[in-house]
Design a protein that fits this description.
InterPro entries: IPNS-like_sf
Distance between the termini: 25 Å
Helix content: 25-40%
Structural class: alpha+beta
Protein name: Fe2OG dioxygenase domain-containing protein
Radius of gyration: 20 Å
CATH class: Mainly Beta
Largest sheet: 9 strands, mixed
CATH superfamily: B-lactam Antibiotic, Isopenicillin N Synthase, Chain
Shape: globular
Order of helices and strands: EEHHEHHHEEHHHHEEEEEEEHEEEEH
Number of domains: 1
CATH topology: Jelly Rolls
Number of strands: 16
Amino acid sequence: MASPSQTSIPATTRTVTISYSDLQDKSMDLSEKIEEGFGPSGLGILSVTDVPGYSTLRRNLLLLSPRLANLPKEVKMELEDPHSRYNFGWSHGKEKLESGKLDMLKGSFYANPILDTPTTDAYLIERYPSYCGSNIWPDAALPELEIAFKALGQMMHDVGLMLAHHCDHYVTNFLCALSQLVSRVMKMDEDEGLEKILRRSRCPKGRLLYYFPTEQSNDNISMSSWCGWHTDHGSLTGLACGMFMRDAVEVPCPDSAAGLYVRTRTDQIVKVVYGEDEIAYQIGETAEILSSGYLCATPHCVRAPRGQEASRLERSTFALFMQPDWEEKLKFPEEVHIHKELISSSGPLTFGEYTEKLLDKYYHLRT
């Protein structure tokens, strides 16, 4: 996907926000806010404010990111899991950028914050290693990591489930209104709601990211320099606002043009901002499929800071990918515009099978 020119600075938009207290109230109708953030005309993102204790948990984990990245090489090698395609434990230099080059700018640590061992079934572990594998913690080298990772991941998972409840209410309202227009009953089965699907899933995945400091001024970098254009294929992605540091001291981002960019349905590029004490959530492709398109995923990327002030700058952040269980059968709507070629005519796909097809399409790692 082509990037716009570096000289043009896209408009900056604040996320739609929902307070934690409103989110807790299951009887409250938040459909207008859900539609504004996640609907067909939205940016596919909104943020939750005033989550009790979140700021402390965010800070506790992000400050561990540089310590993890600077562990001895042999220790980090023990944390790698090639069988899972490096989707558990430490990963550095294994992923490719849009240019096709290996990404040496950042390292990642992946773990399931809810279940250390989601299954002991050897067949499933072999079939779906990126979901069914077990967590790998640096128990001796950095024991604080497991505690901090699980605390933040579980909190973001709980808040995500609350948000999923209100997403279901929004979709139900939409279907009820549509039923009246077309004079036939259209409804979402109780077990097909986003909240139920995510609540019974055994494979949420957290990703702690660390961007290594460089001596370069980065004046000629592209818009997608830190993370290439993509659309999440899961259901909900929780995002912690990134923390910038220089020489182990927290500093503000030195470039106002750096950050998260979204491509809208009308093909506009928009820079999206949210507060460091807020949890942002983005809609993924699977949520769009399951909601028959009423919740909309959008392509996005992350731009690195530019200029002399960006040299020796390091960044930590955390993402939580909430997705269906690998055995969850996906019910595709009649009209699908996302990956139509992957949908089987012989019957429904499980989320695990759908993921395999996506990996085959983009990475050609399996035949």
